Amino acid sequence: MSATDTDVGAALPKVRADYLPLLxxxxxxxAALPFIPSGSTWVTLTIAGLAMGMMIFVMASGLTLIFGxxxxxxxxxxxxxxxxxxxxxxxxxxxGNWMQADSIWLNLAAVIPAVLFAMAVTGALGLAFERVVxxxxxxxxxxxxxxxxxxxxxxxxxxYAFFGPQQIPLPLPASxxxxxxxxxxxxxxxxxxxxxVGLVVFLGMLAILNRTRIGLLIRAGVENxxxxxxxxxxxxxxxxxxxxxxxxxAGLGGVMWGLYREQVxxxxxxxLLVLVFIVVIIGGLGSVxxxxxxxxxxxxxxxxxxFLVPKAALVTDILLMVVILLWRPRGLYPVTSR
Length: 338
Description:
Layout: H1 3-11, H2 20-32, H3 39-70, H4 77-92, H5 96-99, H6 104-134, H7 141-163, E1 168-169, E2 179-182, E3 185-188, H8 189-211, H9 213-223, H10 225-230, H11 235-261, E4 263-264, H12 268-283, H13 288-308, H14 316-327
Antiparallel strand pairs: 1-4, 2-3
C-alpha cells in the first residue's frame, strides 16, 4: 500500500455503527414479560405482534422510499393497499374451491397468482399515478397533500362503484387455517407465514439497496438527488421505478392484510394510512431498516397494551411516536436531512 493510499484512507471519516434502535423491539418484549400473566400468553402476543408488524412494514416500506427519495407526501398510498386487496379477490373468489382444498399445492396455485396479479396492477397504477398526478407537483408539498388525498378519495369511490359498498369475504386458504402448539402457546399458522414474508421483503430490499448498482443510486438519490443527476443519471426514471415498487409493495401488503382480516372493504387503505405514516416517521425518512424497527415497535406495543389496558391501545402508536421523536427528533435511522 502506497503512502498516498494510507493518507486517503486516514482522511475518510469513520461511520459509527448505531445498534441501539435494533435492540428496542427486544427490550420492549422483555419489558412486557413481567406484566403478562403467563409465558404462553406472552409468546402468543409476541408472535401476533411480529406478524402484524411485518404486514405494516410491507405496506410502509415503499412509502418511506417514496418519501425519502422523491420528497413526495403521498397521502394516496392507502389507495394502493385497498386496490391490491380487491385485485386479489378477483383471482381468489373464482378459485374458491382451490382455496378450500386440503392440498397445499392447490392453495398455493390460487394464492401466488393472486399476489402477483395484485402487485402487477398496483405497480402499473403507481406508474400512471406518478406520471399524471405526482409529476406536475414535485417540490410543492401543499399541492401534493391535496392532490394525493383527492386521488385516494377518488380511488375509494371507484372501488365502491365497481365492487359495491359491502365487504367482500376473503377466506384464508385451508392450509393456513388453525394453529399449532409451541410449548403451551397456540401460534396461528398464517401469522408465521406473515413473519416469513416480511423477513423476505426486508432482506430483499436490504440486498437490493446495498448490493446492487440501482440500490446505490437510490441511496445516493435519497441523500442528494441533484448530485446523482449531475453524474449523468436520469433521476426521473429512478423516481418512477421507486414509485412503482412502492405501490406494488402496498398492493402486497393489502393482500396480506385482507387475508388476515378475511375481508376486504374500500375504506381499509384510509384506515391503515395513519398507521403507515406513524411507522415511517418513527423509522426516519428514507430508511428501510428504521421502517422495519418502527413497524415492529408499533405492533408489539399495540398488542401488549391492548391485552393489558384495552382502552389505552387506541393511543399507543401516537404515544410511542412522541417518545421516539423526543429521543431522536428525526426518527430512529434518518437517511435524509429533510
